[in-house]
Amino acid sequence: MPATSSGAIPVIIDTDTAQDDCVTILAGILDPAADVRAITMVAGNVGFDRQFVNAQLTLNAVGALGQVPVYLGSRRPMVRQWVSAEDVHGDGTGGLAMDVTGLDPEREHAVDALIRLTAEAPGEISIVCIGPLTNIAMAVVKDPRFVANVKALYIMGGSNNGRGNITPSAEFNFYVDPHAAQVVLDAGFENIVIVPWAPVTIEQALFSRERFDEISALGTTLAAFYHRICLATLEFDEAAGIPGSTHPDSLTLSVLLHPELIISQAPYRVDVETSSALTLGFSAMAWGRYGLPPNATVVERIDSEAFFQLIRGYMAIETTPSRPFQNL
Ligand code: RIB
Ligand code: CA
What we know:
The protein contains 13 helices and eleven strands. The longest helix is centred in the last third of the chain and has 19 residues, at 221-239. Helix 10 (209-216) packs antiparallel against helix 11 (221-239). It has one domain (9-315): Ribonucleoside hydrolase-like (Inosine-uridine Nucleoside N-ribohydrolase, Chain A, Alpha-Beta Complex), CATH 3.90.245.10. It is α/β, with parallel strands linked by helices and 328 residues long. It is globular. Bound molecules: alpha-D-ribofuranose and calcium ion. Calcium ion (CA) binds at residues 15-16, 21, 44-45, 130-131, 249.
C-alpha cells in the first residue's frame, strides 16, 4: 500500500493490549496524522486471548470494528517463559464485555504480516512497539530484509539510568523478553527511538488523579472507556507510590505523530541484560561521552502539558461504538 496522499504517517502498532496500549490504539484511529495499517499482538501484559479481546473492545469504542486488521503473534518470549502483568492491569480493560461473535484475527501470523507489510511498502512504515519485542526480533531472525524495509521503530522500553517497574532494575517490556530486545538493538535498524519508563514516563507522562478525573468527566463514550480501562492500573500505581495514571505507550505513538512534544533526545548505545538473575532486563543506556557507537535515540524530556491535552482531546471526541458494550 503506498503512503497515504493525506500525508498521514503509516504505522503498525505492535502491542500487548491492556490499559494504555488501548489508549494508544484509540489515538492511532482518532488522530488524522496516523494511518494505522495493522495491529500485531505480542505476549505481555495479560492473557494472550484477552489481549485480542481488548483490541476488539478498543476498536469498538471508537466505532472502528473490522477497520484495522489484527494479527496474532508470539504467545511467549523467545527464550524465557511468559511473565504476566495482570497484577498491575487486571484483565487490561476493567472487565468490559461485548459480543465478539464473528470478530476473528487475521489468519496470517503477526511476524509474517510485519515482514510482508513492510516489504510491500519499503521504507514507509514505522512500527510502534509497545509490548515485549518478541515479534520484532522474530521478524529480524526470519527475514533479514525486514530491517531495511522498516522506516523506524518507536519503542516503549527500558529506563534511562533510572528505576525499573517490574523489578528495581528492569522495565516490563524489556524484562519479559530481554533476548528479543537485544536482538532488535543489535539488528542494525536505521532509526530506533526509545521512550523509557524512567524518567520520562513516571515523571513527565503521568496524569494525576485530578487530571485522570478530568478526562473521566468529559461525558463521552471514550471518556467512560478511558476511565474503565485505566482505573485498575491507576489504583495499582497509587498503591505502589506512583501518584497518577501512567501513559508510556500512548506517549510513544504521540512522539512519532507529534515530534514537537519532544523537548530533548539524544543518541545512546542501548543494551539489555540477558543473563544476570539480579538485573535481567536492565537497559544499559550509554550517552555520548562514553564513545560507544549509538544504536538508538532516547527521548529525555517531553512537553507534559501538551501530551496531556493531546490525550484529553482524543477522549473528548464523540464516537458511536460499532456494537453495544454489555457493561460500560
Ligand atoms: O513498562 C511499561 C510497559 O509494560 C507498557 O508497555 C505496559 O503496557 C506494559 O506492557
Ligand atoms: Ca504495552
